[in-house]
Automatic annotation (TrEMBL):
This is Phospho-N-acetylmuramoyl-pentapeptide-transferase. CDD domains: GT_MraY (cd06852). It is an enzyme of class 2 (transferase). Mg(2+) binds at N157, D217. InterPro entries: Glycosyl_transferase_4, PNAcMuramoyl-5peptid_Trfase, PNAcMuramoyl-5peptid_Trfase_CS. Belongs to the glycosyltransferase 4 family. MraY subfamily. The keyword Ribosomal protein does not apply. It comes from candidate division WOR-1 bacterium RIFOXYC2_FULL_41_25. GO terms for biological process: cell division; cell wall organization; peptidoglycan biosynthetic process; regulation of cell shape. Keywords: Cell cycle, Cell division, Cell membrane, Cell shape, Cell wall biogenesis/degradation, Magnesium, Membrane, Metal-binding, Peptidoglycan synthesis, Transferase, Transmembrane, Transmembrane helix. The chain crosses the membrane at residues 6-28, 49-70, 76-96, 108-129, 135-155, 162-180, 186-206, 213-234, 240-264, 285-305. One of its GO terms (cellular component) is plasma membrane. It is a multi-pass membrane protein.
Amino acid sequence: MGHILLFLSAAFFSLLITFPVLWGASYFKFKQSIRAEGPQSHQSKSGTPTMGGIGFVLTVFIFVLIFIDLELKPQYLAVLLLTLGYAGIGFADDWLKISRKQNLGLTFWQKIILQTGFAAIFAVFLLGFKENQSLLSLLFFCPFSIFIIVGTANATNLTDGLNGLLAGCATIVFLALAIVANKLGFVEATTFSLIVAGATVAFLYFNFPKAKLFMGDVGSLALGAALAGLAIVIHRELLLIVIGGVFVLEALSVILQVGSYKLFKKRIFRMSPLHHHFELMVIPEMYVVIGFWVVGLVFGIVGVFL
């Protein structure tokens, strides 16, 4: 199947499968709780159905099974399982928030332990495909991979704060990764990336400009895990800093904000992550989102030509 057709097929299937997800989330009252310390304008979003990421995660699962020979290329089975594992962590977090009817899911350490565990299993599995490597490089590979996976997943999770922000940026990043993988001759990584991009762009129908459905942590963590896993498989981990520049900026804004407040009792931004800073400058949400998409597109284009 051609690249464009694969992308469109994944998008169409994701669109279709997310309708029953929306119905189920509404029927079973899987509603989003909004944290009180967030922007006051977000309080109107409280009660919006969530866990919509189930739709595009299922699409990725089904399409990868169909279009990638996982027996011949088990590295991509590992990426798929990593994606599902992080989706499972997000599902548990979302479920706890819903059942408690407030924005309190898994604790910070519960998330980190689970995320590190899945990332470690993935990294150890990939060690079996490392040939002619020094002992030092092999010892470095696991902690480095864990850092990349956990960091990327949490960065995408932080980015999921405005309608359409993460879905749009993730679509751009995975398309850029598909182009890079194709240039390097990684056929399966190209296929996987296009599937995720197509599945994710369809979610914008439900999430932008006015959200009828949120993806939840089940979606945001899965996207980060898939992105990091694919980058590791094609040996382009550091390229994530460029093509995923928006995610890096979002994560850095939180780190700088927390660090500055703890050290100097001063805040650098009006609110973090970064998208909230611009939102509190009274810039309409849709314009903030589109602005971030444009920045993400620039990062993606630069990354493709590196």
